[in-house]
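Subject: design request, 144 residues
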C-alpha cells in the first residue's frame, strides 16, 4: 500500500516506502548530560594546567637582559638580572644569535644571591663562533 496525501498527517513529508530507510523517532535530548560532560572537561583541563604550571612555570626564577655590549667577532658581554628565591641560586641559559637568527653561542651560567636578597645582577662574557648580533637569556631554573 502506498501512502497518499489523504493518509498522511498534515505537515508530515511523504517519502516513497523503503527508499530512505526507517525514520527515527525524535529522541529525547539530554542537556544535563552535555552540561555535566562540559563541566568535567573544564575541571580536567584546569587540573592539567595547574600541574604543568607547577612543573614548568616557576615564577621564582625570572631573568631580564639589561644590556649586551662588547660585541666582537668572537664574543658578546651580556648584563642581566635574575630574580631567585631569597638567598638562592639559579642556572641560566645565555645565548647569542647572529643577524640571521642562527645561534652562534650558548652557555649555562650559575648565579647566586647574597643571603637575604632576591635579585642578582651579573655580567657574563659569552664566547661565540661568529659575530653575534644579540645576546639574550633564554631561561633560568633552579640548580641541580
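Subject: RE: design request

Done. Sequence follows.
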Amino acid at each position: 500500500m502506498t501512502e497518499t496525501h489523504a493518509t498522511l498527517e498534515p505537515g508530515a513529508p511523504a517519502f516513497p516506502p523503503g527508499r530512505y530507510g526507517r525514520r527515527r523517532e525524535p529522541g529525547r535530548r539530554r542537556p544535563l548530560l552535555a552540561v555535566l560532560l562540559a563541566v568535567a572537561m573544564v575541571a580536567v583541563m584546569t587540573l592539567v594546567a595547574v600541574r604543568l604550571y607547577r612543573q614548568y612555570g616557576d615564577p621564582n626564577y625570572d631573568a631580564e637582559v639589561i644590556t649586551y655590549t662588547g660585541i666582537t667577532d668572537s664574543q658578546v658581554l651580556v648584563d642581566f638580572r635574575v630574580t631567585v628565591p631569597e638567598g638562592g641560586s639559579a642556572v641560566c641559559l645565555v645565548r647569542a644569535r647572529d643577524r640571521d637568527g642562527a645561534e652562534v653561542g650558548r652557555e649555562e651560567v650559575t648565579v647566586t644571591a647574597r643571603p637575604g636578597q632576591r635579585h642578582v645582577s651579573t655580567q657574563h662574557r659569552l664566547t661565540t663562533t661568529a659575530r653575534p648580533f644579540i645576546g639574550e637569556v633564554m631561561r633560568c631554573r633552579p640548580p641541580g
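DSSP finds one helix and six strands in the chain.
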